[in-house]
Amino acid sequence: MAKKILTIAGSSLLLLTGCQSNQTSQNANEKKAKVTKEVWGKLPNGTDIDLYTLTNYNGLEAKITNYGGIVVSLMTPDKNGKLEDVVLGFETLDEYMKDSPYFGCIVGRYGNRIAKGEFELNGTTYHLAKNDGENHLHGGIKGFDKVVWEAVPDTSAGEASLNLTYVSPDGEEGYPGNLEVRVVYTLTNKDELKITYFATTDKQTPVNLTHHGYFNLTGGAKRDILGHELSINSNGFLPVDGGLIPTGELRALNGTPFNFKSPKPIGDDINFDDVQLQMAQGYDHNWILAAHKPGGQPELAATVLEPESGRYMEVWTTEPGLQFYSGNFLDGKYKGKGGVIYQDRWGLCLETQHFPDSPNHLNFPSTILVPGDHYSSTTIYKFSVKNEK
Ligand code: GLA
Fold first, then answer.
1. For the chain, which residues make up each domain, given as ranges?
2. Is 284 in the pocket of ligand 1 (CB under 6 A)?
3. Which of 12, 108, 230, 380 has the fewest CB atoms found within 10 Å of its own CB?
4. Catalytic residues
5. Under CATH, which architecture does the 33-385 domain have?
6. Mean pLDDT value of segment 347-356
7. Mutation test of ligand 1: which of 136, 244, 349 has the most ligand atoms closer than 8 Å to its C-beta?
8. pLDDT given at position 11
């Protein structure tokens, strides 16, 4: 792999390019996948935290930090080719460390909720951290969104990738077993943000890894996401109780405001008189993906069109479920990139995953990883434009 150390504005940049030859004439305008690295900030204990910039062949760019594996920005073109940021987030590491509603991070060990922070496995009851009322949410008080990942960039296949690894020790946040996790972000030359997750364990443990990007395809988060047209490839969803824990019912979508089988603006039914919508203050539910095949290839889970900019995003996944969260808890308290205040419904999350609270629902697909088995999961966010206006 080609490697160069550059010094720009006093900071050292490690530049990796996807091209083995012609290293000395590397030019910023050349069309090739690359990854650069800069020091972004420090933890209170002095540990340096880095920011990696992945650029693909077409000039799309993702900035990803090894703190929480957070995608800090993602630049994709609109219908006129203008590159703009399509994810919510902060400008500085300090803001992420202080208080973030999971902006852009890797979520684990268990994405979504586990009721009362408890589950039973082989006769033992495990007690997890409770960080969402009486329930456990997104891996606990210090989940994978707040740990430092070991990062190694890779462009050897001609695409910009970042390999992130983390070893979660036995007992962390109450979970059994040492869990070795690897997450690979690739900004492919087909304009996809591809995320692959791998894990192994030395004791049985629940694992449900996901990514918590808040998308706003207007570019630069110009307005809320109620005009985004969403489709979800699903025939049913999981109704929840007041703590947003699935009741165990699998409910058909027909005739409900949860029906996104054909593209529909998110705002169309969000204020519908419906107990499920009222309980979650909007959409914050898991859809059962129709095309999922256990052990199969990624299938189309959802599409999103932002009609003004023409930006179009497809979500493909190997996972059986999709948590669609309509940014109901954004209430103007966060000032994001460019000084934009993130109001209610300023971003939407499409979190691919197994169903919430699976360890307590034996009828849901299992999330228990067994020693000797290999957890693996793939999700692709694919970007293009549709010029309908
Ligand atoms: C998930 C949950 C939501 C909320 C957000 C973070 O999407 O389902 O209820 O907790 O994360 O604010």
1. 1-30, 33-385
2. yes
3. 12
4. 212, 351
5. Distorted Sandwich (2.70)
6. 98
7. 349
8. 35
